[in-house]
Design goal:
Layout (H helix, E strand, L loop, with lengths): L14 H11 L3 H6 L18 H8 L4 H15 L17 E3 L2 E3 L3 E3 L10 H6 L4 E7 L12 E4 L4 E4 L8 H10 L5 E6 L10 H12 L5 E5 L14 H22 L5 E5 L5 H13 L4 E4 L20 E4 L3 H15 L5 E4 L5 H10 L3 E4 L1 H6 L2 H9 L1
Parallel strand pairs: 3-4, 3-13, 4-7, 7-8, 8-9, 9-10, 10-12, 12-13
Antiparallel strand pairs: 1-2, 5-6, 6-11
Helix pairs in contact: 1-3, 1-4, 7-8, 8-9, 9-10, 10-11
Enzyme class: oxidoreductase
GO cellular component, one term: plasma membrane
EC number: 1.3.5.2
Length: about 375
């Protein structure tokens, strides 16, 4: 018996159907399952898992993008931490990778932005990710920008978002992390509050570091979102050096306090010029930063001109970002010359796209928009064949 009223030996429905309906579609599934109406069989590696997502996506894409996200996470919260979490579990091969002094179960991670408050860490981890990066989180709760603030470019398989670091605050996130049992690497992505002046922005990062350090596998420093006014200025010159110096000093202080070393990775934009990229790389090396995440979303609309929503303000992600982010990784890798690892993200929606990021110089890769357009099968496909 895996759950009251669910007899796995008398399966009436295959796992793929249960998998997608509990994850995406049927809000009452956890309660229906208890009543013997549905008796899922918990097989793994079934090719049928790949069959149903297009139908579910079609239904979800009838909803406003943010409503679809909220609905999906409502279902995930219902299974997280319960035996029904098995419904979203995928068995993927172990392909360990060492990066930033940490051993990742496989090179594929979930990028920040999907689980901003760390509410569904275990359920997301059960899908096969080697790492899950939660956030971006800020010291204080904030609502983010006005809605609507996320738009699908379906033909391009891209998204434009101007969310604005909407989150429930770092204290809420820490409480959620304490409840999680994910056995992969947990990254926590931190940022500054919108109403904190950029000149005082480093204080917000230090506050978040203090609170998440004991619970993080690594900490991602987000200075590249285009949706917080002035944030990207922290990528340049003295502002960057001042921030990096401050977070490294804080890291040393917290290492002594907690008797553990938590790596720091800085997330950069894809819109940096060659000269700016060289300067960023030099600063990261000089300050002994542990890793770099390349890249965040882009303001460039050259590949989506004429498409519906293309002129909406915000950062563009998904397939239109794929080549741009890969080229940034390639240039960054050449400049760093192995002195610190790169986590590659931006438009990964296939095994080929993931391999291109690794070939360009990334040690690990992350997905976000590809996960929304292709669903959980993309995780298994990439991890299996990368």
């Amino acid at each position: 018996m895996i759950y009251p009223g669910v007899d796995c030996r008398k399966a009436a429905i295959r796992k793929p159907i249960a998998f997608y309906f509990v994850f995406f579609a049927v809000g009452q599934f956890p309660f229906v399952a208890r009543s013997n109406i549905i008796r899922p069989r918990f097989a793994t590696g079934n090719p049928g898992e790949f069959m149903y997502y297009p139908f579910v996506r079609k239904a979800l894409f009838q909803l406003d993008p943010e409503r679809a996200h909220e609905f999906t996470f409502q279902q995930l919260r219902r299974v997280t931490g319960t035996p029904l979490e098995a419904l979203v579990r995928q068995k993927v091969p172990a392909k360990p990778v060492t990066c930033m002094g940490l051993t990742f179960k496989n090179p594929l991670g979930l990028a920040a932005g999907l689980d901003k408050n760390g509410e569904c860490i275990d359920a997301l981890g059960a899908m096969g990710f080697g790492s899950v990066e939660i956030g971006t989180v800020t010291p204080r709760p904030q609502p983010g920008n006005d809605k609507p603030r996320i738009f699908r470019l379906v033909d391009a398989e891209g998204l434009i978002n101007r969310m604005g670091f909407n989150n429930l605050g770092v204290d809420n996130l820490v409480e959620n992390v304490k409840k999680a049992h994910f056995d992969g690497i947990l990254g926590i992505n931190i940022g500054k509050n919108k109403d904190t002046p950029v000149e005082q922005g480093k204080d917000d990062y230090l506050i978040c570091m203090e609170k998440v350090y004991a619970y993080a596998g690594y900490i991602a420093i987000n200075i590249s979102s285009p949706n917080t006014p002035g944030l990207r200025t922290l990528q340049y010159g003295e502002a960057l050096d001042d921030l990096l110096s401050s977070i490294k000093n804080k890291q040393a202080e917290l290492q002594a306090k907690h008797h553990k070393y938590v790596p720091l990775a800085v997330k950069i934009a894809p819109d940096l010029s060659v000269e700016e990229l060289i300067q960023v790389a030099d600063s990261l090396v000089r300050h002994n930063i542990d890793g770099v995440i390349a890249t965040n979303t882009t303001l460039d609309r050259s590949l989506v001109q004429g498409m519906k929503h293309c002129d909406e303000m915000g950062g563009l992600s998904g397939r239109p970002l794929q080549l741009k982010s890969t080229e940034i990784i390639r240039m960054l890798s050449a400049e760093l010359n192995g002195r610190l690892p790169i986590i590659g993200v931006g438009g990964i929606d296939s095994v080929i796209a993931a391999r291109e990021k690794l070939a360009a110089g990334a040690t690990l890769v992350q997905i976000y928009s590809g996960f929304i357009f292709k669903g959980p099968p993309l995780i298994k496909e990439i991890v299996t064949h990368i």
